[in-house]
Amino acid sequence: MVTIITGTTNKPMASEALKGFFQANEALDGYLYIGYPIIGTVDGAYPIDGLWISPSKGLVVFNLIEGKNIDGYQDAQDDCANKVEAKLKGYKQLMKKRTLCVPINVITYAPALVRCPNVDEDYPLCINNDSLFTHIDDLDWEDSGYYEALVSVLQAISTIRKGKKKREIVNPQSRGAKLRSLEDSIANLDNRQSRAVIETVEGVQRIRGLAGSGKTIVIALKAAYLHAQHPDWRIAITFNTRSLKGQLRQLINTFYIEQTSEEPDWDNVHIIHAWGAPGGGERNGLYYTFCSCNNVEYSDFMAARSKFGSADPFGKACAKALEDAAEVKQLYDAILVDEAQDFSPSFLRMCYEMLKKPKRLVYAYDELQNLRSQSLPSPEEIFGKHEDGSPKVKFEPYEEGKPQQDIILEKCYRNSRPALVTAHALGFGIYREPTGERDSGLVQMFDQRALWEDIGYEVSSGKLEDGKHVVLQRTAESSPAFLETHSDIDDLIVFKSFETQEEQDAWVAQEIKHNLEHDELRPDDIIVINPDPITTKRIVAPIRSQLYQFGIASHTAGVDTAPDIFFADNNDSVAFTGIYRAKGNEAAMVYIINAQACFNSYFDLAKIRNQLFTAITRSKAWVRVLGIGSEMQKLISEYERVKQHGFTLDFEYPTKAQRDHMNIVNRDMSAAEKDHVRKSKSNVASLIDGLESGQIYLEDLGEEQVLRLRALLEQKEE
Fold first, then answer.
1. 582 with 567: CB under 8 angstroms?
2. What is the pTM of this model?
3. Which of 409, 436, 451 is the last residue of a domain?
4. Are 586 and 554 in contact (CB under 8 A)?
């Protein structure tokens, strides 16, 4: 059976006829691409209507004719064959000396024709399924040993996953050598990722996946692909983490040049922050653009927080702008949203309303950035209803040959299995020691159990049901073995405690020095993360000072660089960062300092555990989790239990009542709410002390208050 990947095309009738042929002939195999690839030539971008790769037939390129005019189709076939051959000859894995080992066949398919004219047999022209089958049946690929390499070349889409520049390696056993091999192994996107890039939905498309599954790359490549196919479209790419802007621009630029041999038209491709502010240029944002174009009041962060409170001021500002807009101006042909888990549904609704029909909105999010539940509501809930009550957006069940509306990227290409399971175990509190009778140890949990399987886990033993014991493990498909076999477990992950801040700082500085002088790592292979963004500038100063004495350049992202820059332009500086700027970025070696701050908290335990989860998942090879004092020792003990369980998640799945309790305990609270809770707890403690000491008697409280208190306590214990 042929896997059909449907991109964007300006020949819809002929494309559908071609897909229908392959769907009807299930004995055929391989991959059929509609609207991909686009080949860069000296004359600019050259689009391919259809391309089929088969282990038995080789490569077949389809020139599609939408109507009945076949004039010049022979020249078109020659031109196509020459350009495809020139493209493939650039890949040495497809060559034997100077010979391309892949047969290139070109077929013109004109299903609108009723009668086939007399044509040259060297230039096949098919008008129906019978004639197409006859031509295909005659094809044969004798040396099909190059098939896998051909698939890899076409599905890779781009070389951007490889390192920024060639690594000069002296020691074949060094970390740099291991990293080079690792980067070569992950250079190719898998089939699911390539589908996510190419498949174009005439409407809303959702892309879900773990950290490291390639969401940001897919979003960037998809933007470039749409721009190449439709250069006249106005396309916006938006995000939350400002340091992603430079990365997105580089990815889009690289892919577009690879595909078209031209620079993108940045007048039609806008890499734009979600919020924005007056002043134009780099300060612009989608929300500000919406307010400006629709003549509604704009609120900056301080104004929004003052008006709407500290709980989601941006989301409420977007909701207010949508409410106040009389008739929303439709400004874009396509909008792509990265990090959608960081946004309220109201922002996604704003993006949707800013789009021209058919409302091409693509939003990608991490299932685990918000660990408590499904990151975002369903599309039906997010985008609202028409006047007749029907949902504006509804995901239909997947049909073979149709573009997927809902894509899950389950394979993690960044984190090794041990690192990823460790991050999940600590983030959820799987092996956390309970602190009271009602505390199971768990900090948070999915309300939807099926999400575990969606993100690449399988049940090793037990049952994935409320109140049941279960052991979850990563599947071999979702966590490729090569991500962990390059180094010992105890080198992939190191947890280490220090007695003082000074000892921790000195150790980190010495390790970075060793990484650069002996491990053959580059400065841009290293990130140092401090979980608390407020203290980061001050906290990292002593380490940076020691590195300076060693002659090693460093910078604090967003402080010593522009807000949109994470790594230094010349890549010769070690990046220090707080957790929020670290999101969306990655490095081979990640040092997490002051991790003890993520062990426990009177408030926001889920939040600080999520910070630790995010920090660990920035690593694509090695991670060092460092901290000070007794709480760091407790965190190390928690990690040791992850190791003892063979990097699996072994726990009792909480009931709905238990999950509700977790959500209450770990709910987001404003500063005023936290202050109110503190005062209330203080008052309760004083009352208990007074009752225990005999300074206060129950009778002093009054019968009604005592009865209410007793009823409340009995209710909570049920």
1. no
2. 0.79
3. 409
4. no
